[in-house]
């Protein structure tokens, strides 16, 4: 086997991401990734799936702007005496 020979090909994607912690150093996220792989070359015929669970700390990169929309409740009361 040559060093760097490709043995598997496949595609994967994150399945679930959970925010574990938010602190001054950033946001810690735990994620699970799943991918289907197919063997090539000397690994031909060795197919299957890979599940990986890891944790990543995403540091804050600066300050941004946020917009919060608070819905306003508008009511008309025809008989205010029932609330007294």
Overview of this protein structure:
The structure is a single chain. This protein has 84 residues and is mainly beta. It has one domain (1-61). It is 0% helix and 49% strand. The chain is built from no helices and three strands. It has strands at 8-23, 26-39, 48-58. The chain has a three-stranded antiparallel sheet, with no helix packed on it. Strand 1 (8-23) and strand 2 (26-39) form a beta hairpin. The model is unreliable at 75-80 (pLDDT under 50).
In short:
By secondary structure, the protein is an all-beta fold.
Topology:
Layout: E1 8-23, E2 26-39, E3 48-58
Antiparallel strand pairs: 1-2, 2-3
List keywords for this structure.
single chain; 84 residues; mainly beta; three-stranded antiparallel beta sheet
- Backbone CA Rg: 26 Å
Global morphology: elongated
The H-and-E topology, N to C, reads as: EEE
Low-confidence stretches: 75-80
Compute the number of helices.
0
Q: What is the percent of helical residues?
A: under 10%
Count of all domains: 1
Estimate what percentage of residues fall within beta strands: over 45%
What structural category do the secondary elements indicate?
mainly beta
């Amino acid at each position: 086997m040559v060093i760097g020979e490709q043995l598997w090909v496949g595609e994967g994607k994150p399945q679930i991401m959970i925010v574990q912690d938010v602190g001054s150093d950033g946001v810690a996220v735990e994620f699970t990734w799943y991918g289907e792989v197919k063997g090539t070359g000397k690994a031909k015929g060795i197919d299957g799936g890979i599940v990986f669970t890891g944790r990543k700390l995403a540091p804050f990169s600066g300050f941004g702007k946020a917009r919060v929309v608070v819905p306003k409740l508008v009511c008309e009361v025809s008989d205010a005496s029932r609330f007294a």
